[in-house]
Amino acid sequence: MITGRRMAAVDANAAALGVPRKQLMESSGHAVARAVREVADPGSRVVIVAGRGNNGGDAFVTARFLDEYHVTTLLLGRAETIGTEIARENWDALEAADYDIREVTDSAGFELPEADVVVDAMLGTGISGDLREPAATAARAINAADATVVAVDVPSGFDADDGDHADNGVEADHVVTFHDAKPGLEDLEADVTVADIGIPSAAERFVGPGDVDLARPTGREGRPYVIGGGPYTGAPALAAAAALRAGAELSFVAAPEVVAREIQGYSEDLIVQPFDGEHLQPEQVEDLLETARTYDNVVVLGPGIGTEEKTLEAASRFLEGFSGRVVVDADALQVVPEVETEATLVCTPNRGELARMGGPDADDLRAVADDIEAFAADLGHVVLAKGADDVITDGERTRVSRSGTVGMKVGGTGDTLAGIVAALLEHAPPLEAASAAAQVNGLAGEQLAAEEGHGLLASDLADEIPRVLWDGGVSND
Ligand SMILES: NC(=O)C1=CN([C@@H]2O[C@H](COP(=O)(O)OP(=O)(O)OC[C@H]3O[C@@H](n4cnc5c(N)ncnc54)[C@H](O)[C@@H]3O)[C@@H](O)[C@H]2O)[C@H](O)CC1
Ligand SMILES: [K+]
User: Fold this and answer.
1) Was domain 4-200 assigned CATH 3.20.70.20?
2) Which residues have C-beta within 8 Å of that of residue 69, sequence separation ≥ 6?
3) What residues does each domain of the chain span?
4) Is any ligand 1 atom within 6 A of the Cβ of residue 120?
5) SS3 helix, strand, coil % of the chain, rounded to 5?
6) 314-368 confidence digits (pLDDT tens)
7) To test ligand 1's pocket by mutation, which of 24, 26, 55 has the most ligand atoms within 8 angstroms of CB?
8) Distance (Å, rounded) from C-alpha 379 to C-alpha 358?
9) YjeF C-terminal domain spans which residues (predicted)?
10) Cα-to-centroid distance, 201 and ligand 2 (Å)
């Protein structure tokens, strides 16, 4: 089962792996042609009703595989308004090859030619809202026609993210959906075929540019609240700085007063709020909870807090009292298995921290990805296990991020990762935020290593993040 939103990421990942969308379109179109063959004999009249996106593009391919049929292809709009290059190329090929193609320029005049089979290729996963004209008129004509309706990917009007079908949507007899089932398709009257279109499973397993596309901030938002510092001062500053570089608007650090000035000294961009004492203690938890609840911050709990008994007790109390979103890192991780919390956690353990939490103890995390998945299922939270390859899992779905470089073993890269997760968690679901953050952190390290080899510093990593997040991670067609 896969949503339309995730499907867009998966085909971007496939393109990055060397399987371009046009190749996928060829496979999609051929799969639809096979479905037409199953419902109608050669010589039958097939009318394709195509939209201006890739859904239509798929059907322009279908036309080429039905030469023994009488195929008419209607485009809802003028050819120059076709929205994607690969759909346009397939339309142009039909024109050059003298296929029977027609542009429908006004919906009022829409006439559906006599057909034994109608191929519904108006809208697929690119839909937004109920059908607009001319698709609405066309859908009415298709539903009224005495023809077998074969829908491309989904019946036009069906939303592959939430399973809703528009009231004025197409009622299909058959649906040929691509790569994987879509939520809600099974509830429709139609019989559904899932067509394999040659997307490598790696496009789902490995984090790629499509995952970064899903979690990339569209604006400047989020005010992560880093609760850290104590024996260490660099970690909270690195996390807070990285959050800003990953799109946060403001970045706060709540730290013991004895190190607050030092942390502020690292960067004028951070807003450091001291609390009494030398370590995080239970008596500070109420105030921290009050602030975190008031501003609904994404919290980063743990960078540099140390392992004092009282500090770990305070970390537990905070999690017990909070129901928002928390990135738990470093020494705070060890309290998670015992704590009851309503908060949404993203845990970011390295190998040792994962083992200490009760997860598998292995150098190659990818080799024990299934065990990490089971551990996350048991823990009830997203786990981003950091290694040469990172394993990101919510206990059901598991992805591997292969980005990164050996130079990133330097201290502090986990702190920047925690900050990136916090910034992306502002507006992306936990698994998506964690997957994209792992990928972006690694790509930033690769970018840095190109200049600094194995000598890169975590403090330089943050500065690489914008280039990776806003252009390097862009899905390449
Ligand atoms: N995911 C894959 O592996 C592949 C998917 N393919 C096909 O691509 C479509 C998705 O194509 P996309 O260009 O993103 O959008 P659509 O063609 O579905 O629709 C966009 C088109 O429709 C217009 N539009 C949007 N909402 C409405 C509305 N409510 N009423 C009327 N018109 C609407 C919008 O303006 C655009 O013009 C996917 O379903 C597959 O069929 C690839 O070809 C192969 C790989
Ligand atoms: K469709």
Assistant:
1) no
2) 36, 40, 42, 43, 44, 45, 46, 117
3) 4-200, 209-472
4) no
5) 45, 15, 35
6) 999 999 999 999 999 999 999 999 999 999 999 999 999 999 999 999 999 999 9
7) 55
8) 10
9) 226-472
10) 24
